Amino acid sequence: MTPATPATPATPAVPGTGPLSRLVALVHTLLVVEALLLLAASPGAAALLLLGADASNLPLVAVCLLPVGPALSAALYALHRRGRDLADLHPARAYWRGYRLNTCAVLRLWAPLSAWLAVIAFTLTHFALTGLPGWYALLLAGIGGASLLWGAHALVLASLFAFRTRDTARLAAHFLRHGRATLAAASPLVLAFGLAVLFGEALPALLAAPLLLSLLHGGRPVITETAKDFTA
């Protein structure tokens, strides 16, 4: 009679690594990152509240939005390095590390982009005074949209890689020509714009962390190609 083969003992589940734990970890990370993002951007937000809703204030709006760039960059950094189990959650530490590392590099891209978009917005809001043909307004709007998409790529690259400013700008322009990556970057921007139009500017701000996570998810091809082809 053949002796029975002893049953292999089941491998015990590691606490904190199941689907529910990963979901809780994700929600925790999003909440912490969202709170820190709002805190880091609060100086500019407070200044915006003091400005009237007048198109002549657009240059000042660009100045008020300067703290938003580093805040978004730090959020991308923290979300990219988020822990996936409850035993390894340090989103606040990752956020402030990203803020410290990326602020200067991001501002060198964010400041001129904000100024450029302010010029476009100011021109469009005063377009009737320019005497230019109507197609020029459409051209300006298209340039503004392309600039936003370039900015989305540049923000992701500057948040996750330590390139020189001009190299980041060139890479962002390079990926702007990649239709799939650019379409993925456009999705959270369009969603944020739609939410702002329908429900006010506060809602996209409160959902900034999930929107940035979507931007990261859509930017995986950009991140992968950059790490493979443009880093040592």
From TrEMBL:
It comes from the Bacteria. The chain crosses the membrane at residues 30-52, 58-79, 109-129, 135-163, 183-207. Keywords: Membrane, Transmembrane, Transmembrane helix. This is DUF624 domain-containing protein.
